[in-house]
Specification:
By secondary structure, the chain is an alpha/beta fold. It has ten helices and 14 strands. The chain folds into two domains: about 170 residues, HAD superfamily/HAD-like (Rossmann fold, 3-Layer(aba) Sandwich); about 100 residues, 2-Layer Sandwich (Hypothetical Protein, Haloacid Dehalogenase-like Hydrolase, Chain: A, domain 2), CATH 3.30.1240. The longest helix has 14 residues. It is globular, with a radius of gyration of 18 Å.
Length: about 290
């Protein structure tokens, strides 16, 4: 039985208009009303951005934010779990950004710090939320605040190159993911949605086989792999689809609702489910079933 469902937000739960469809809303409500299954959100966005969405859905479970860098409940003021970017590493990233001449923003203390206005404010608010702070120097932010992640805005055709460059240059010191065709993100080493979901499941005394995760992009791979049942949206990246147990309809066709109705409310299981090949499950081989 599925006892914990982790839902990605952008491209999974909502589209560009950030609206949850009536069918998806009803399915999430029905799942929670069974009393057997907990629903949470797992997103790269900050807590303050997704907390109102969680409240509208009646979700009271701790939320996975910042790509897994923070776990926090809307019922509490302090995070249950949080990973901070080491200041020395962040300064090195800023030096890389200066040489590379990329557009980088920094998340710290539930604010988003920016140094330029390359795009419209509406564009930034869509991607980053409403708590935008423009500053002259991000290095000062690193010294005066507690950075939790950074975002690099890229041209879609350069995204893979920049992701690989960051991953190689900062190997073992940061986690680099893609959450959108125009975004590359960096978190402290060890941060991922999969590790956060593993932590939350243990906190809630829920086994891995009782967890379900639904996502649409590469940053969801770790949690879709870790969950006993991993679902990729029909609009998901090829890499995520390759490791999923089931492919849902796309977000525009209420894929989240289809998955919840089938696997939680009707308690079905995927047909001919195959184990994901190495190396994807390798880091979780010691987990309890």
């Amino acid at each position: 039985m599925i006892r914990l469902v982790a839902l990605d937000v952008d491209g999974t739960l909502v589209g560009d208009d950030l609206t949850i469809s009536s069918r998806v809303h009803a399915a999430i409500q029905a799942v929670q009303q069974t009393g057997d299954t907990i629903v949470t959100l797992a997103t790269g966005r900050m807590f303050d951005f997704v907390a109102p969405m969680a409240k509208s859905l009646g979700i009271t479970a701790p939320l996975i934010c910042y790509q897994g860098g923070m776990i926090k409940s809307i019922l509490d003021t302090a995070p249950l779990y949080q990973m901070i970017m080491p200041s020395d590493v962040m300064h090195q990233v800023l030096a890389w950004q200066w040489k590379r001449n990329t557009r980088l923003v920094l998340y710290a203390d539930d604010d988003v710090f920016l140094t330029e206005r390359t795009y419209s404010e509406a564009y930034y608010r869509y991607f980053l939320g409403n708590r935008l702070v423009w500053v002259d120097d991000l290095a000062t932010v690193v010294e005066e605040h507690t950075p939790i992640k950074f975002v690099v805005f890229v041209d879609p055709d350069e995204a893979e190159t920049i992701r690989d460059e960051l991953a190689q240059q900062f190997d073992g010191r940061i986690e680099v993911t893609r959450s959108h065709q125009e975004v590359v993100e960096g978190n402290p080493a060890g941060v991922s949605k999969g590790n956060a979901l593993q932590w939350l499941a243990a906190y809630l005394s829920i086994r891995r086989t009782e967890a379900m995760a639904i996502g649409d992009h590469d940053n969801d791979i770790s949690m879709v792999i870790w969950a006993g049942l991993g679902v990729a949206m029909g609009n998901a990246s090829p890499a995520l689809k390759a490791v999923a147990d089931w492919i849902a309809p796309p977000m525009e066709q209420d894929g989240v609702a289809a998955a919840l109705e089938r696997f939680v409310l009707r308690k079905e299981r995927p047909v001919n489910r195959e184990e994901v090949p190495p190396p994807y499950r390798r880091s979780y081989t010691n987990d309890p079933a």
